[in-house]
Write a structure and sequence with these properties.
The protein has 179 residues and is mostly helical. Helices cover 46% and strands 4% of the residues.
Length: 179
């Protein structure tokens, strides 16, 4: 192992000039627009789904983007397929309405709305409609009427759970109203 040497770049004064003498300046890419001498630091695609890029200055990138149409280089079938993919992605964002009141006037909880949907009732269904829907579904799925049918037993349990949610909510509202 060679002996350690002393570095001349410590302390004050510095023994070498600042900025690294002898280094060449970094080359700067110019705008790809003919005749422009500004630095080209804004990449823009040459064609859809291709890695090739133009490098424009800020002014020419804005001009290029103003006239850019992604679907020009695609066939009609490819454009329709791409648009369908983008629409499908946009629909996935629409489903995230749990941050705001998605349905109804805000007087019912998400569990109540799910229970009403299970009974196939409107959002503003009253207690008599809920009871009628519960009776109808309980009769069709009762284990005594469908012996040995595991799916019917599961649907009956779900019917009971949904009715419990709605009944408890109605009791809470009545208690608040009476208080």
């Amino acid at each position: 192992m060679p002996p350690q040497r002393r570095n001349n770049d410590w302390g004050f004064p510095r023994w070498r000039p600042y900025g690294g003498a002898g280094r060449a300046p970094e080359a700067q890419r110019l705008c790809d627009r003919e005749g422009c001498t500004q630095p080209g630091n804004c990449p823009a695609p040459k064609a859809p789904n291709k890695p090739d890029r133009w490098y424009f200055c800020e002014a020419h990138a804005a001009e290029y983007n103003k006239r850019w149409n992604y679907f020009d280089a695609l066939t009609d079938a490819e454009a329709a397929e791409q648009e369908a993919k983008e629409q499908q992605g946009a629909r996935s964002y629409e489903r995230a309405k749990h941050w705001a009141w998605g349905e109804g006037d805000g007087s019912r909880s998400r569990a109540e709305l799910d229970a009403l949907k299970f009974f196939e009732l409107p959002i503003d269904a009253d207690e008599s409609q809920v009871k009628a829907a519960h009776r109808r579904m309980a009769k069709t799925n009762h284990p005594d009427l469908n012996p040995g049918d595991a799916d019917a037993a599961t649907r009956f349990q779900a019917t009971q759970a949904a009715y419990e949610v709605l009944r408890n909510a109605a009791e809470r509202r009545a208690a608040v109203r009476d208080a």
